[in-house]
Amino acid sequence: MANHDEKPFAKVIDFGIAKVNSDEGEGKGLTRTGMIFGTPEYMSPEQALGSSDTLDQRSDIYSLCVLFYEFLTLRHYLEHKSNVPAILFGVISEAPKPAKSIFSKKQGAIPKELSVFVMKGLEKKPEQRFAMVEEMTEDASLIENPWLTISEVSLRISVLNVRSLKKHQKD
Which residue, 72, 158, 55, is CA-closest to 139? Predict the structure, then answer.
């Protein structure tokens, strides 16, 4: 956590895909296509495939939503995988169960609206995720009030679903 203009924000950093700036201002990648760096359970599918040249904010958004999923469900969606190749295969090809379908006595029921939000960030195809953190925070602002009425929640879920459908139709 850090402060920017007196507003707290979280920053996800993966030094495996960082770039080093030279004196001339040109960035030199620390990784090459096909190389994999990071904790497999928190890699995006494109990172697990070694596609370091295609990584952007959507990869970080995926990793952040893996954390959100764990916070909500108290488990990692690939907890049943026991070795790195199986985890990487799962990251690339195995969709998580919707967060709302997982119930924990410690956590309670997960609101559908929050599940929709997290699951969008966990889409396997980058173009189906939030494009930028700003889009993500805009959608998150629709669900930050825990005392919404049922009709307000339904309306907001509809807004999130319509946005997702419109985005998918463009792709």
Answer: 158
pLDDT in tens, the chain (171 residues): 455 566 666 665 554 444 444 444 444 555 455 566 778 899 999 999 888 778 888 998 999 999 989 988 888 999 999 999 999 999 999 999 988 888 777 777 788 888 888 999 999 999 999 998 888 888 887 775 554 554 455 555 555 555 555 555 555
Distances (CA, A) of 150 to 23, 43, 101, 146, 147: 57, 35, 19, 11, 9
- pTM equals 0.67
| DSSP symbols for the chain | -EEETTEEE-----GGG-EEE-TTS-EEESS-TT---S-GGG--HHHHTT-GGG--HHHHHHHHHHHHHHHHHSS-TTTT--SHHHHHHHHHH-PPPPGGG--BTTTBPPPHHHHHHHHHHT-SSGGGS-SSHHHHHHHHHTS--TT--HHHHHHHHHHHHHHHHHHHHH-
Determine the Cα–Cα distance for residues 17 and 42; give it in Å rounded to an integer: 14
